[in-house]
Specification:
The structure holds 2 protein chains of 2 kinds.
Chain A lengths: L2 E2 L4 E8 L2 E10 L3 E6 L4 E5 L3 E9 L16 E7 L6 E3 L6 E3 L16 E7 L10 H16 L3 E5 L5 H11 E3 L4 E4 L12 H12 L6 E6 L7 E5 L3 E3 L8 E3 L6 E4 L2 E4 L11 E2 L7 E5 L6 H8 L4 E6 L10 H9 L3 E6 L12 H9 L1 E3 L5 H14 L5 H6 L19
Parallel strand pairs in A: 7-10, 7-11, 11-13, 13-14, 21-22, 22-23, 23-24
Antiparallel strand pairs in A: 1-3, 2-3, 2-6, 3-4, 4-5, 8-9, 12-20, 14-15, 15-18, 16-17, 18-19
Helix pairs in contact in A: 1-2, 2-7, 5-6
Chain B lengths: L1 H5 L1 E9 L19 E5 L13 H9 L2 E6 L18 H13 L3 E2 L2 E2 L2 E4 L9 E15 L2 E12 L3 E5 L3 E5 L6 E7 L6 H16 L11 E8 L5 E6 L3 H24 L11 E2 L10 H8 L3 E7 L13 H11 L6 E2 L12 H8 L6 E7 L4 H16 L5 E5 L5 E5 L7 E3 L6 E2 L2 H8 L6 H12 L3 H9 L3 H11 L2 H18 L6 H13 L4 H13 L4 H5 L9 H14 L8 H8 L6 H13 L1
Helix pairs in contact in B: 3-10, 4-5, 7-9, 11-12, 12-14, 13-14, 13-15, 14-16, 15-16, 18-20
The chains are: A alpha/beta, B alpha+beta.
Amino acid sequence: MVRSKHNSVTRLKFTYKGSEFEGVLIAEDRDTYLVKLSNGYNLTIPRDSINILDRNELSGPEQSESERILSGKGKKITLIGSGGTIASRVDYSTGAVKPVDGTEFLRGNISNFEHFELELKILPPVFSEDMTALNWQTIARSVHAGLKDSEGVVVMHGTDTMAYTASALAFMFEKQSGPIILTGSQRSSDRPSSDAFLNIEGSLEFASTDLGEVCIAMHKGLSDTTINLLRGVRTRKMHSSRRDAFKSIGGPELAEYSKGGIKFKESYKERDDSNELRDKLESRVSLIYFNPILTNEDFETLAFNKRAVVLAGTGLGHVSNRFVPTIRQLSKSGIKFYMTTQCIYGSVNMNVYSTGRELISAGVIPLGNMLSEVALVKSMFVFANYDPDEVDRKMKENLRGEIMDREVPFGGETT
Amino acid sequence: MSNERKQKIGLEVHIQLQGEKLFCRCPTESSYELKEVVERSLRLSSGETGKFDQAAKYETQRSRGFIYHLHGNNCLVDVDEEPPHDVNNQALERSIALSMSLNCSIVDYATFMRKIVIDGSNTTGFQRTAIIGFGGFLETSRGKVRISTVCLEEDAARKLSDNAGAATYSLERLGIPLVEISTEPDIIDAAHAIETAEKIGKLALLPGWARKGAEAIRQDVNFSSGFGRVEIKGVQKISLIETCLDYESRRHSTLAEISSKIKSGFDPEKIHFIDVTGIFEDTKSKIILSGLRSGNKVYATVLPSMKGYLKNGNYRLGAEIADITRLYGAGGIMHSDELPGYGVEKEITPIISILKPNKNDAFAILVSGEEKIQIIAEEIRNRISRILSLDLSETRFVDDSGITHYLRPLPGRERMYPETDVATVPIGSSIIEQCKKIVPKSEDQMIADLTKAYAISKQDATSIINKGFTDSFKKLTELTGDARLSSRILNQLIPEITKKGSTPVLPGAVVEAVEMSFSIGIVSSGLERALLRHFVDGVSFADLSGMPDLQAVSHNELEKIIKDLISNENDVTMANLIPRIKARENRIFDPKDAVNIFKMLSQK
């Protein structure tokens, strides 16, 4: 185990391979010392090669020059930190990035800081990949509290599952009195080239509009010039590392922020006069990603004891014919099946081929161009909040803009 | 002189390695075709201890945007859109081998660091670097120069332009493996610095590891004359080492002189810019007019106790101030040591009445944007205070004429923090053994080896090695069996072909041509003639094969010709034998052989 040397400073004077060095011990483990030399370089030195001449413990951490954030004047926005690289620093003991414990990282780094009265709430930090429905509910309640006493809320979130959280919030808020903006960063905020600050800057601007939707605000392109506002239930992380990873699927972004201000490009739902949070979520749901070697056994395992199963089928909404009897049988036992396309772009249409028609007759309900992950989250909301005889109708109903009735052959990108 | 004794010189030699980039598999070479433009900004971040680096903080204050030009040899890694890939093994091994040739100890682990550089020259805002070797030395004609460290790092982007609003960089150079070799301040003078730089550079040049081209090997020169260390960046040409050291040395002694004269009378708080735009409403100064048209204002300040030191004989304190204002995009200053001038004349009296300088005070006029004037004033106060207290430590850069200029404060250890995206690379015994096999030899050793192995002159060997022709020479000698002929072809014939022909010819092409010539029956003694005809006159090999003066007469044929001569021309003697054969035969023959045949036949 690596032991952190964070709270006290150990100065070392030592020889290594015949040269004498001085430095600060950053970490040590069973085999090695990690030392920051007086010229700033780090050396990793095997324990059996180092000859320590002098070891000097200095008490207390070195003081940081940073100060606590001072709030500006203007519209009040609540900033919620839920984890992720956007509010993280390097952990020098393990070399990993860990969440910040304060807000000083914003100071001097966003240009509109003075324009807002900011209140920051830090939730117990969770890495994006560790988020569960319980975290969505915690965030939702925090957002709800934030909306009650501010104009809008910005949630800082890890990017990996940010689109899931955005969908969850979108469905859980039947009414919202201000914008709910999720933002993250693809380059952690301890890097000079981080995209975090412009993303936050844009998010604050979007959070002060009359928008009444849950949206994601991230870079439009590779330049630090423009931030896209994307409808949460139509958004997907489409690249593992680029800062413009988040894309609106099948339609354009709602708005853009740049130095010139905000430009809305699409119509949007305006904010409500009050808030209504329905934060119950059904956990007995699953998402099955069809592939040619998927077996009936796997399929049954994944569908076991679920109330709703979202299928990510091929093309227009297909899984192999070999699953039709299984689906028919499981449907009769009360499990609901919904079809989406793993093509990501485009809509399912199960009338074109016979397999699609057979799947429908076996009980599968097509969900148009709803994204697979969105359908999964929506089923959690619908099954927890509506009676069993209402769920199919609600799943097919366009509740938050998750279904696009029109996909136009111009203006958008397909990949 | 005591000043001479205090003078310390050290070098940082940067060598670009050719092949692939350090943390991605892009080639180091590019066709310079612009593919994409990306705009970025960089922000300051703190190191492990939560402190900010002075040099980085300074760059942030200049708050510019950056424009990056992407080329064919750029991928997502270069534009900081993807984490770095594994370290380039070839570059790692070569940096280890170079460390070994400089007698360094090799680290057990290559631990990559982020060196914060937010002048925009790295898209990430930092340069990745790791110590590979340390504690070595280089033998020079004037004793050992100790090597403090050998680092393996990423090269930075190339600056295309720089102005107040944004700096533009081209990314084709970004990420090229760069070996940084730092010496201790053991270098005696400029000539010694040049020898050291050349010796270090050749270690990578001679085995063909370094890239070709002007920027492949660059030096930073560290200089001190007892008033703090000055790091002079980007001395690309070796010839500039002497000029910039000379300039810097004079600068230090002049500043020491100025300091002794005005130190006590200097009150930095008197430096305070006042908006005097109103006075310049109908100015005749073109510089000020164009500044005003672009929305700037005119400011003036007292420069306390500096009268006669701004620009007067050797005194150039004005240039020290202008270096700062230019870095903040405000252009230079106009100061009282050179006014009236620049079209500024009638404005002087009203300015003096506003500033009310004392009799030893100077004053300066500056055109600047309103938002930057406070920070410029603070920088001037800080820098002049430091100069007058004779703390001259800072980072400077050298221009093409060898004059150095202020660039930024010296970076501290706070600018280094761990690169968490790259795993620490253990350098185990198998890597060490592999690297030992490729340790580059010094130039002297290479020359001695080649001279001995091929029995050629030292001069020829030196030329072959320095031109990078060693491999071609070895191949050529295998073909010709004649090292001197091979040397002549490479050292004399290639320059002759290049001079006479329209395009330069590469040694590889010559080796191929020699192989071809032999395959069509051209003999060694006709080889040089054949190559000239082929490369200069454009004669094809098919046509060369029919040219008699490139072919040899066999022993039997020669015997036949001589027999014929003896029987038909009865006045043939030993003395006229050779011309007689030549009169009958265009092809090449061995005269010794002819004489032997003649003797034998005459005796019969």
